[in-house]
Write a structure and sequence with these properties.
The complex is a heterodimer of chains A (406) and B (228). With 406 residues, chain A is an alpha+beta fold. Chain A has 16 helices and 14 strands. In chain A, helix 13 packs antiparallel against helix 15. By secondary structure, chain B is of the alpha/beta class. In chain B, strands 6-7-8-3-9-10 form a six-stranded mixed β-sheet, with helices on both faces. Chain B has a four-stranded antiparallel β-sheet with strand order 2-1-4-5, covered by helices on one side. In chain B, strand 7, helix 6 and strand 8 form a beta-alpha-beta unit. Classes of the chains: A alpha+beta (406), B alpha/beta (228). The interface between A and B is medium-sized, with 23 and 27 residues.
């Protein structure tokens, strides 16, 4: 305890220098956290929006379906699979889907779209589709109407109660065609999806595609992304021999994961520059501390303090200094992050347009995931500890008499 | 009385490969328990170097030093630090207290290094500071104490580890006459009442007058050794 007290008081001996060092850590931690939570938040939202409406975090489908995504690769409703999903603790929600590509037509306009047959209640638990409705209403079970994405409705010049014609290929070569009244329009954040998606009730989709009681996939929402692979393996084990294929969103939409990884790599480089600033700040403090206190170190060794113990106290000082900077930085920036999580920043003008070019919703919703704060703190702490190796090295090289006479 | 310190043909040469300086040259010295010995001599005579060698702060280039019959010149640096902690108390010219600790904590610190329990540390720190007349300054930091008071804390710190002897390098050099008198009284009292062995280097005639043995060094050699 006394060593800790000694380290703490020593830390405040050069109050101004300590405050400068702590400030540099404080601001660097703030900027590093802000950069990270913005990127992670942007992609968390992008991934959540994309996968919840398309693949799900994990998808169970007929073996080989994802390669050609043909309505012929469907599977029948299976009570065993339902039972597995209902009892798997890491599954937050799941929804069956019957998906097919087709043409939507109205007047003289036609567009290729993805039409999705859904169980309205289950779908909403996975994709929150009902909350995305901006006019009209959400689907009810066995509804005969259709929900169009806002961009698609706008392109086809359709409003509520107008009729859209769908044409495509049904199950085993059947012709799929039908007329559907527009009952709802949903606004999706991701530009490409907002221009090309439509939803029918499962009954209406089965009618359109002539599949009978079959699905193309079951999309699964999970509560912990860290358990993605573990859950996948679990499901593979439990459905072995049933003809299913279980895939994660990273396997189904690798370009999204790659984009995320590329952005994170950029982020690491930017953070690296900040860390370099911190490293120089801490190293400067170490150099000055060693010079200023060499005489004192000599006295301490003379009266019987082992060099290892002395080095330990110095390391504690540096760690304390870093911890103070880290905690202050994290605590001060958290309310800001929380604010921009609740009220995301809408990117406008050129920045908004350039974001949309990447098919990303121009909204930065900062991530409040505590791991982003911990990672930054951990990195800064590691920098301090690694740099303190220099102090340890120098203390072990001290010659008592030279130090006392310095 | 048995010899607590023995040096045999002790030498220290600085810059042996360039311009050699014989700081201590062939010194044979025996100090018995309970002595109150002053090392005197002009500047550059080797007093401080001899104290450093006796205190295990520096290694000799020739000869050896035995403390209680143990040759400390053969010890590794780490063992020597441990040996100093258990056997030798130091009082430096410039007090050299830890500035961020209070008087009491400075005294306790040495006991902490010895892994003494908290209760015992606190009790002994109070006893020692009372003994050097600083009972009312326990919680003062060095910057709040006068030079004389700081040096008395340094003496208390040197005594805290229950050493076999205390080495003091010009302990009164920075003190005014009143503080010097005060410090000498305390050291003499500790020597007489507690049989604590003191060896100190000094230029100060008042200190020399108090010493019971005066060893005079010139050019690193003992030129006289007088008991008074």
């Amino acid at each position: 305890m006394m060593y800790l007290k000694l380290a703490w008081r020593n830390m405040w001996r050069s109050r101004r220098r300590t405050l400068i060092t702590i400030s540099s850590i404080f601001f660097a931690v703030i900027f590093a956290i802000l950069m990270r939570v913005a990127v992670v938040g942007l992609f968390d939202k992008l991934i959540a929006d994309t996968v919840s409406l398309t693949s799900g975090y994990i998808q169970v489908h007929h073996s080989g379906y994802w390669e050609n995504r043909s309505v012929d690769s469907t599977f029948e409703q299976n009570p065993k699979l339902v039972n597995i999903l209902d009892h798997e603790k890491d599954v937050t929600a799941w929804a069956p889907r019957l998906e097919s590509f087709g043409l939507a037509s109205s007047g003289d306009r036609t567009k290729g779209i993805m039409v999705v047959g859904v169980d309205p209640e289950k779908e909403n638990s996975v994709s929150n589709l009902a909350q995305k409705i901006i006019s009209g209403k959400y689907l009810a079970e066995n509804d005969k109407g259709i929900i169009l994405a806002e961009g698609l409705a706008s392109y086809l010049k359709l409003k509520i109660n107008d009729t859209v014609v769908l044409i495509g290929q049904g199950y085993q070569g059947n012709m799929a065609s039908g007329k559907y009244p527009v009952i709802g329009i949903a606004k999706l954040g991701i530009p490409e999806m907002n221009k090309g998606m439509a939803w029918l009730s499962m009954a209406a989709a089965r009618d359109l595609l002539s599949t009978g009681a079959r699905y193309t996939s079951i999309s699964i929402l999970i509560n912990d992304q860290g358990k993605l692979d573990e859950l996948k393996q679990n499901l593979i084990l439990q459905t072995k021999g049933d003809g299913y294929e279980v895939m994660t969103w990273k396997e189904m939409i690798p370009e999204l994961d790659q984009l995320f990884q590329a952005k994170m790599a950029q982020n690491v480089i930017m953070s690296g520059v900040l860390y370099l600033v911190i490293a120089f700040g801490i190293f400067g403090t170490i150099l000055m501390m060693l010079n200023e206190r060499l005489h004192e170190f000599g006295i301490l060794i003379a009266i019987g303090m082992k060099k290892g113990l002395l080095a330990g106290v110095v390391v504690i000082e540096l760690v304390l200094m870093s911890v103070v900077g880290i905690i202050l930085g994290a605590v001060c920036i958290y309310p800001v992050v929380l604010y921009y999580h609740i009220r995301p920043i809408k990117l406008t003008g050129d920045m908004g347009k350039s974001t949309e070019l990447y098919n990303i919703e121009p909204v930065i919703q900062m991530s409040t995931n505590i791991s982003n704060f911990i990672i930054q703190g951990y990195v800064v702490l590691m920098i301090a500890i690694v740099l303190s190796l220099y102090a340890i090295f120098k203390i072990h090289k001290i010659k008592v008499i030279e130090a006392i006479n310095s | 009385m048995s010899n607590i310190i023995e040096s045999h043909n002790l030498s220290k040469v600085y810059n042996p490969d360039t311009i050699p300086v014989n700081a201590v040259s062939g010194v044979d010295l025996k100090v018995e328990e309970g002595e109150f010995t002053a090392l005197v001599g002009p500047s550059g005579s080797g007093k401080t170097t001899l104290l450093n060698l006796i205190g295990g702060l520096d290694y000799p280039t020739g000869g050896n030093v035995k403390i209680g019959g143990i040759d400390i010149t053969e010890m590794s640096e780490n063992k020597l630090i441990d040996f100093r902690l258990k056997n030798i108390g130091f009082v430096f010219q410039a007090y050299n207290l830890i500035p961020v600790l209070t008087a009491s904590e400075n005294v306790e610190f040495v006991m902490l290094l010895q892994k003494t329990s908290k209760n015992e540390r606190e009790k002994r720190a109070i006893e020692l500071l009372t003994e050097v007349g600083l009972k009312d300054k326990l919680n003062k930091r060095p910057s709040e104490l006068s030079g004389g008071q700081q040096q008395r804390v340094a003496v208390a710190r040197a005594l805290a580890s229950k050493p076999r002897f205390i080495l003091a390098d010009e302990p009164t050099a920075n003190l005014d006459s009143k503080s010097t008198e005060n410090l000498l009284e305390i050291m003499a009292k500790l020597n007489i009442e507690d049989k604590m062995t003191f060896i100190f280097s000094t230029h100060d005639q008042r200190v020399i007058d108090k010493a019971r043995r005066v060893v005079t060094l010139v050019d690193g050699k003992i030129v006289s050794d007088v008991k008074q």
